[in-house]
Amino acid sequence: MDIAEAILTTVATASTPLLIAATGELVVERSGVLNLGVEGMMLMGAVSGFAVTALTGYPWLGVLAAVIVGAVYSLLFGFLTLTLVTNQVATGLALTLLGVGLSGLIGVPFVGHPGIQMTSLYIPGLTGLPYVGKLLFGEDPLFYLSIVLVIGVSWFLFGTRAGLTLRSVGDNHGSAHALGIPVIRIRYLAVMFGGACAGLAGAQLSIVYTPQWVENMTAGRGWIALALVVFASWRPWRVFAGAYLFGLLTIAELNIQAVDLSTLHQLPGAVYDLLALIKAIPSQFLSSIPYLATVVVLVVISRNRRLTMMNTPASLGRAFVPDR
User: Fold this and answer.
1) Per residue in 79-136, pLDDT tens?
2) Residue 321 lies in a domain
3) Residue 102 within a domain
4) What is the pTM for the complete model shown?
5) CA-CA distance, 107 to 47, in Å (whole number)?
6) Is 20 exposed, middle or buried (0-12, 13-18, 19+ CB in 10 A)?
7) In a domain, 318, yes or no
8) How far apart are CA 120 and CA 140, in angstroms?
9) Helix 141-159, helix 161-171: angle, nearest 10
10) What's the domain count of the chain?
11) Is the dihedral of CA 194, 196, 199, 205 positive or negative?
């Protein structure tokens, strides 16, 4: 029971940064903007959140700093792509490379510095419930915030007039502009929201998941978040399912590597043999499983071109200049 509960809570913690970053990027892409700089923004959020937490002793100030830094950093992308009309793909890649280098530079004084972990929720009588108590009533606050974020984004996109306006900009920015909708302003706001979410996801890594600063600690999670948006067909609740699927894959390979087969002779023979076979696989290959799964999922999705084109925002990645 204790092992099952520990695995469930670990999967939730590992999935939270993917869910937050992917939800923010979903809003960005729904507005018609393709920002490939999620990895860089997550790193900037991680280093700024850890630094402020270490200097002040307050994790919530670190979270606030990460959100602000992520939003401000995304403005650089917005200025280049929306105002100067640069290529969105190239600019996003440059943003990631800049974030990797800049976060490493800022984080030099904090390498090896003891971190302060955000306190998890505790409700007497509920947190101690078997299996689900720790998961539902004993997780960190950012876990619950990620759930609220998905619900809020889903309601905003498909239940409000503002969400309909944002989706119309992503589907046809020319027609939206002709109707008097401020396309550039809406896209700027969407880009800032995505940056804030990426910064928050980075803070979750350095303050909750592993309370420390390590250079390039996101380890490709920003790229997985980008793939999740496509995997989810730009739907918030599918992003939720996809984030937890990839979180489960990540934790599964870590737990399989740590299994001591000598204590599992009571398992059925077929299960024991399967675990022994997996244990024989090099750990480096097992660590790559979440990323291999990302590639496989994208290949499978791309085979159904009709479904992909039907759900993809029609103006995604296309530059918009009002006077043209």
Assistant:
1) 999 999 999 999 999 999 999 999 999 999 999 888 888 988 888 777 777 777 777 8
2) no
3) yes
4) 0.90
5) 6
6) buried
7) no
8) 4
9) 80
10) 1
11) negative
324 lies in some domain: no
pLDDT beneath 50, residues of the chain: none
| CATH number of the domain that residue 258 is part of | 1.10.3470
Q: Supply the pLDDT for residue 30.
A: 95
* Domain containing residue 27: 2-311
